[in-house]
Design a protein that fits this description.
The complex is a heterodimer of chains A (252) and B (279). Chain A has 252 residues and is mainly alpha-helical. Chain A contains 13 helices and no strands. With 279 residues, chain B is mostly helical.
Chain lengths: 252, 279
């Protein structure tokens, strides 16, 4: 990986935290499924990147960041995990096991970001008092984004440039041991976390039965995920319509 | 709001309202910090409105108006656009003479609505829409189809803009009572309930499709090899181990165990079971 490629990875990481993707950086450049594709593009293998990114994405599927909390950094995990897989030829599930600790380390940067913007909020107060609307842009966007770019681009760039090489060396050293296959096995289990996290939010009441319908549709009918989603949409609409159709009747 | 005052309210131009909404959608989290969260983002969003309502020389008026919006604020950005729209219309009324609104009505509405709208928005976007769209994209992406991530990006961003515009206009035109009425009408709950069903179907499918857990245990019997996975588990229900594991992890997390704790447990048990050759 060249320094320039690592720099681009750093930019993607910054886009996840910065405002430029219609304020939805967290939902786009914060998601390994997008990052895997982007990092793959930069490293010349978007297809592998997409596959690895999608696999890493599963662990972070149900992650919720509310009220300033940030349980894990899916973006850094997605970027470094994908880069490591492409550079050192890891399988997607092996890359998952490597991505997890990176995702935990990234939360420190989020805390740093939340602290670093405090002075600019006070600067904005000052401009508000002066009635200076022009400078409020600088207090809310200009200054904090310069700092944010530094906080996010540099560590990710270094992690990609040096970290991926280190991982690559480690993978070479482990190539004939049982460790890599075991990492792959662990990577195969970890999507459970992402799914269970999402279930925590939606696995309630009657909806629980539908979870098993989805399982059956794939195990026994071997339907495609897109077909299952279409059926799922119909189930959802029908359920709500039937449940609330008897006017005046209280829903159970 | 009485009928007479409506007629005399200063209105900001459509261009200003668009600027206000874009400032909010783009930069609500730009100065996100532990002290005020989106507070400064909210202030920034209101600047185009205040610029138009008050003369350049009216420093006092501008200063007072801006300082109404410096405090702590936090909500879901897209659904919270309703509050930004509502505050824009309230600023118009304040600038038109209804100064009493600034004292109590403005802060109480702002802080009264941010909680409910965050609850709805976070559930809808973080727990339902984003995982659902990602699950769909995963089906494509896992086979290396780059349309997976691209479609997700386009559809999600389209939804962000649509929701932002819809909520902003709702707040700007209909006011706080209409927002509360809409929240309490049950429409949103029905959507969330239906989408939750959809989400559950897809999660069940994801378990079977993407979680891999197989045992390698086999016994040598006189009649031949008894492979625990092929001859037992697969014979009962294929993918039963991933299903059981998912339900256990869900149960633990529902009882309050953190995702981090479960993650560590899974990694350690995977390592141990892998080393002794069970999985």
């Amino acid at each position: 990986m060249t320094l320039f490629q690592a720099f681009l990875c750093g930019i993607f990481y910054y886009l996840n935290a910065g405002p430029w993707i219609i304020g939805a950086g967290y939902y786009t450049f914060g998601k390994p499924i997008i990052l895997g594709f982007m990092v793959g593009l930069v490293l010349g293998d978007p297809i592998t990147g997409t596959i690895v990114g999608a696999t890493i994405q599963l662990i972070y599927l149900g992650i919720m960041s509310t009220g300033g909390s940030y349980p894990a950094d899916a973006a850094l995990a997605g970027i470094v995990g994908t880069a490591a897989a492409i550079v050192s030829g890891l399988s997607a599930t092996e890359a998952v096991a490597i991505a997890v600790p990176i995702g935990l380390a990234g939360t420190v940067l989020f805390q740093l970001r939340m602290l670093s913007a405090v002075p600019f909020t006070h600067l904005a107060d000052k401009y508000a008092k002066e009635g200076n609307t022009k400078m409020i842009w600088w207090a809310n966007v200009g200054f904090p984004q310069i700092v944010l770019a530094l906080i996010y681009v540099v560590p990710c760039m270094l992690a990609c440039y040096y970290g991926v090489t280190a991982i690559s060396g480690l993978v070479d050293a482990l190539s004939n041991t049982r460790i890599l296959p075991i990492l792959g096995t662990i990577g195969g289990i970890l999507p459970v976390i992402g799914i269970a996290m999402n279930m925590k939010a939606i696995f309630k009441g009657d909806a629980r039965y539908f979870f098993f319908i989805g399982f059956i549709l794939i195990v026994y009918l071997k339907l495609d995920l897109v077909v299952i989603s279409a059926l799922a949409l119909i189930f959802g609409i029908l359920y709500v319509q039937l449940k609330y159709s008897n006017k005046g009747g209280s829903p159970t | 709001m009485s009928e007479q005052t409506v007629a005399t309210v200063k209105r900001v131009s459509k261009k200003t309202r668009i600027k206000c909404l874009l400032n909010w959608l783009f930069f609500a989290h730009s100065c996100y910090n532990y002290e005020r969260l989106q507070g400064t983002g909210f202030l920034h969003a209101m600047t185009p409105v205040i610029d138009e309502l008050y003369d350049k020389d009216d420093i006092e008026g501008r200063s007072a108006a801006l300082q109404r919006h410096t405090a702590f604020f936090n909500t879901e950005v897209r659904t919270g656009s309703a509050i930004v729209g509502l505050c824009a219309s309230m600023e118009e009324r304040i600038a038109s003479g209804e100064t009493e609104l600034a004292e109590e009505a403005m802060p109480s509405i702002k802080y009264g609505l941010m909680g409910p709208l965050a609850g709805i928005g976070d559930t809808f976007i973080q727990a339902i829409i984003s995982p659902l769209l990602i699950s769909l994209a995963l089906g494509l992406a896992q086979t290396g189809n780059v349309m997976g991530p691209i479609l997700y990006l386009v559809v999600f961003l389209g939804l962000v803009v649509f929701l932002g515009v819809f909520c902003f206009n709702f707040g700007y035109k209909k006011g706080d009572e209409a927002i509360m009425k809409f929240i309490e009408s049950g429409v949103i709950n029905k959507i969330i309930e239906g989408a939750g069903i959809m989400g559950c179907v897809v999660m069940g499918a994801l378990v079977a499709k993407f979680v891999t857990l197989k045992t390698t245990v086999a016994f040598e019997l006189t009649t031949g090899t008894f492979d625990l996975q092929a001859n037992f588990f697969d014979a009962i229900v294929p993918c039963i181990l991933p299903l059981i594991l998912t339900l256990i992890v869900y149960k633990r997390m529902d009882k309050g165990d953190s995702a981090l704790k479960m993650l560590l447990i899974l990694i350690v048990s995977g390592l141990v079971l892998g080393l002794i050759g069970i999985i």
